[in-house]
Amino acid sequence: MASNATCTPDDTFKYTLYTSVYSMVFIVGLGSNCVALYVLRCSLKLRNETITYMTNLAVSDLLFVFTLPFRIFYYVTRDWPFGNLLCNISGTLFLTNMYGSILFLTCISVDRFLAIVHPFRSRMLRTKKKAIIVCVAVWVTVLTGSVPATFLQTTKGTANQTKTCFENFSSDTWKTFLSKIVIFIEIVGFFIPLLLNLFCFSMVLKTLKQPITLSRSKFNKKKILRMIVVHFLTFICCFVPYNVTLVMYSLVRTGTVRNCFVVTTVKTMYPITLCFAVSNCCFDPIVYYFTSETFQNSIKRKSKSLRLDSDFSEALHQSFPTKNLRLISVNSESTV
């Protein structure tokens, strides 16, 4: 068994990886979530409990996206000149977005489960007022798990007079503080939501296989299947790899796991799975589109109106030159 002291895998590739992925997430995530938030808050007349969850998820994504330029600058220069407070805020918003997204997606999953499996019995539960209460509980939960990170001294000086941000914590810090945060956020923010999503997914699939249920409802089977598959795949692909790796990463950093092969594998996989997790900001608007038919209709109406405006302006552009030529011809004839 090789010790952690002698095993020093090279993970410097992460800076280039983070720069590329975070830049893409910033551009796509900012644009798509701004459009989504505009549609959710300004275009939709019907604002039910599902729209409430989606709005909070979009806000969570945007708060994180706004911090990405600072992170991109840091990964390019490998220096954090913005101070300890902004580093803490950046790290806190990362955790808030990560586990806020998981919990809000779980809320949407449970809401769809109740609407499809228990459409009549769930009417009293599925109200906008209760959705707001649930959203407040989600924000309190994720802030409880992420805000303690702000009490850490997250910036550290290096030998070449640069500062690091939210990395290179000592083994003692991981043992006494960070491991406890990881345990809390993994249980409350990942494993419980994962079980809920698996349960809801399986129960909805089971319900859809019952012909009697389908004949009594107005749901379109293909739309529902597409909705729950997109939702479930987004959850699994974005969050499962990272959170499984995070458990192993914390065991490595606390010195519980010392095998050099495992240490190297975990430190290589951690940046890659982190990029998958961060990309959820880009995929969430896709979930909105497939989850809410109201959201789909609003997007279609907007795109149709844009096409009509484009066609109208093109028609005007084509008609004006003809009109001008006729005027020139008339004027020339009158002068002759």
UniProtKB/TrEMBL annotation:
GO cellular component, as recorded: plasma membrane
Question: What name does the UniProt record give this protein?
Answer: G-protein coupled receptors family 1 profile domain-containing protein
Q: Which residues form the G-protein coupled receptors family 1 profile domain?
A: 32-288
Species for this entry: Scyliorhinus torazame (Cloudy catshark)
Q: Would you kindly state one Gene Ontology biological process term found in this protein's UniProt entry? A: phospholipase C-activating G protein-coupled receptor signaling pathway
A single GO molecular-function term is: lysophosphatidic acid receptor activity
Q: Where does the chain cross the membrane?
A: 20-40, 52-77, 89-110, 131-151, 181-204, 224-249, 269-291
Location of this chain's protein in the cell:
Membrane
The topology of this chain with respect to the membrane is:
Multi-pass membrane protein
State the UniProt keywords alphabetically: Disulfide bond, G-protein coupled receptor, Glycoprotein, Membrane, Receptor, Transducer, Transmembrane, Transmembrane helix
